[in-house]
Here is the input.
Amino acid sequence: ATLTVPCDAEALISAIAAANDEAANPGLDVVTLASGCTYTLTRWIDVNAGEGVLALPAVTSQLSIVGNGATIQMAPGVEGRFFKVTGALTLTDVTLTGAQRVSTLG
Here is the structure.
């Protein structure tokens, strides 16, 4: 499926989750971002013991994100990773900034 994402971080999160739904969207999914948009991630989506925290859903299917010059960034104070990929991920014309791996282990 082709999913067009407006300039809204929650919409980006929803689009990646929808792309992972192989029953509804089998095969390669293309998520197209709004041209020049900055998507600011303000919260954690998932905490994986020993792997840190994720600001976006894990990629479990075939996903291509077409950025159109967009930026995906972590908000100040939100530490973690953008992606965990167990499927396949292609990024085109998108900037990622502000992420870091943070251990959930003591």
Observations:
- The helical segments are 9-20.
- Residues 52 and 90 are 22 Å apart (CA to CA).
- The first strand starts at residue 2 and ends at 5.
- The two ends are 41 Å apart (CA to CA).
